């Protein structure tokens, strides 16, 4: 063991949290619930990486670095350089866990759930020898150093401290980092090593770039804490050196900071500025490595990302399958989009040999397809063929991402969903709150119940109960769970009562980084309709009103921007007799979309129930889309006489390809005025005459007319997604007849004649009422 001067050594604390592989839920609620295996070759959760919510690794205990004393003597390196301390007790613990220990063997038993969130994303660095030029490799160190040689170096530091040259200081760091790993904690407790660190800070301006890089490598090997203030000095110096270094050196420095677990936004900002001028010089390996660094740092200047996208296209034929996964993960983590063209190119690459694509890379590619909403049909088809076999050997985080990608892309593959549902119950304990939430949301969104639905849902609901402390930390996840369950017609009353309690509502609004008012309102409204016997907490009237206004403003703005909706609204008013017979509003505001309501009496005649409608309302303000035609007196006379109307509309439609009506506050044309009535009323009378006498004997009917779009259905099918299916279910419970103006029927009709559109609407309205 390296001898240390006990008079100068400090109270010893462990500097470096030991690295480990975690295989259970990272959100443990007590130390006794933590299940982890310490492994010096695996990952440590670090400040600057994902929070525990997004990482499978358990967070290491916080380490406090402070000045140390022994025998009344204080060792102070500098005002900005706290001394390095290592606990002898912790150091001894570091060497007690052997590969054959029970905890280590347990990792082997649970290897499916083993995921190294630090090392696994770096696997691509082994694919090409060029990566070694600009990345850190733990196996490449200086020549191994014996304990006696280490003692000699520390002795020289103490004796010759005033005469050590910068290059000698850098060389000492390199050599000391080559001591056996079990000696590192003891080395870091040495007063002589603390003095060497002080000398490096004192001489910081005398080091050249290679020396600085060598010292930073030593810091990584020795496990200097990422929060140590000494590193601030080195980061500042590297910022000054950016424009003097090569691309390989800059990437290596960025990689070392990443490996150290320290965020360096100042350095990266300058580095990215450098790259904006030199991006065309990036080689393939440099490009892939840079994208990895950008993703891990979560920093992404968009102008640079666009340039990198063009380089991806340049190298597209040389990129390997695993590198495709690295590119996707880097862009995904930095919230940077890729064009549909590039995504399709990378999807084609993956399709060419998907059998040999690792599951890790497959998940990362799916993340990017989800982020960009690109529907690569061939990729998803091949994914559906290989995923069921891979899911049992995939960790629950990977399973969650696969499932979430399917729901985001609206792709319902029963084979994939059944494999997920079958594999999850036995290992549900490994799920984080986020995993439970996203999986329930995905199944609910796709409106799919697997064959083992009862086992699947009961296991997840039970896990929600077990993870309530975690859901208190991430309240938005509980709301996501409950909404996903509601889509699937599961209503765990105790959990709903808790989620709508004033305390949790307040907690969700304060802690969540998302706006959760809409989610709370949707849950509350759903419970009010589908759980008539529910007597638990409900949302306050104030929050209900706030959510109602928010959702109505969004829905009205959305629908009034769609020409196909405005055409349907205008023709319905024309057919039924005016705006008082049709009401555009949200029948079920909590379902987040609006409807056109029509009411018929017992004789199947429309009722003028919309008392809010007046000729000056926005809903009645429509005009012909401008196509370069001047409104002359002659043309106005023709319109008033009902002539040339069909010709004018046909010309407008053929020119624009869409219906020509839109809401506008200027040039309003009252629907009841003679300008629009003459021809319209004649056609309406013709249509009204088509209603059979038997219709008049039917009871009073309330119709909810819905103009749908493709995003409300599973991809390539006519199966409604969960939210929209739930809305129709609730409308039926309230006594409404849902009339669907489907996009596959209505959109092609926009180019047909006015009479054809009216005939279609008449059939929909009056036939649905039967």
TrEMBL record:
Superkingdom of the organism of origin: Eukaryota
**Keyword presence, Transferase:** no
Q: Where is the RAP domain?
A: 703-763
Specify the protein name: RAP domain-containing protein
Predominant subcellular localization, coarse grouping = mitochondrion
Q: Which organism is it from?
A: Balaenoptera physalus (Fin whale)
Q: Name one GO cellular component term.
A: ribonucleoprotein granule
- Pfam families, from UniProt? FAST_1 (PF06743), FAST_2 (PF08368), RAP (PF08373)
Q: Name one GO biological process term.
A: mitochondrial RNA processing
Write down the InterPro entries for this protein, in alphabetical order: FAST_2, FAST_kinase, FAST_Leu-rich, RAP
Q: Which GO terms describe its molecular function?
A: RNA binding
The record's subcellular location field reads: Mitochondrion
Q: What are the entry keywords? A: Mitochondrion
